[in-house]
Task: inverse folding
């Protein structure tokens, strides 16, 4: 009994941590945790207000086409297309670049910028 409670507590900690860390809509995150689906960001929580929810997590972490992004080294660009685990971005100065989404996520390479 105690062990089960510990596991549940641990998963709650994980859930809250993920909720704190997510750049997506927090309401979507929470509803997802409870097995419900919210197809659109709620437009009412802090990440929705900040604009990160719609640009990143709404497409399940993928970068949607036409998303305006900013790269630390290459500056501003626009997402041209996604190809499986890659995203192709046209940068204003660096031209077309293909980035691995795993690396983008891991190193936070692309940030959405206000359109
Ligand atoms: Zn929201």
Result:
């Amino acid at each position: 009994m105690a062990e089960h409670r510990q596991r549940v507590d641990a998963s709650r900690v994980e859930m809250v941590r993920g909720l704190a860390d997510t750049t997506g809509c927090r309401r979507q995150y929470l509803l997802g945790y409870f097995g419900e689906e919210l197809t659109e960001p709620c437009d009412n929580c802090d990440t929705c207000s900040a604009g990160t929810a719609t640009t990143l997590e709404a497409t399940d972490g993928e970068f949607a086409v036409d998303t305006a992004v900013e790269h630390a080294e290459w500056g501003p660009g626009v997402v041209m297309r996604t190809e499986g685990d890659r995203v192709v971005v046209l940068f204003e100065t660096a031209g077309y670049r293909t980035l691995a989404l795993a690396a983008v996520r891991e190193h936070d390479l692309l940030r959405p910028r206000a359109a």
Notes: Strands lie at 68-71, 75-83, 86-91, 95-100, 110-112. Residues 25-27, 41-42, 44-45, 47-48, 53 surround zinc ion (CB under 6 Å). Residues 56-60 have pLDDT under 50 and may be disordered.
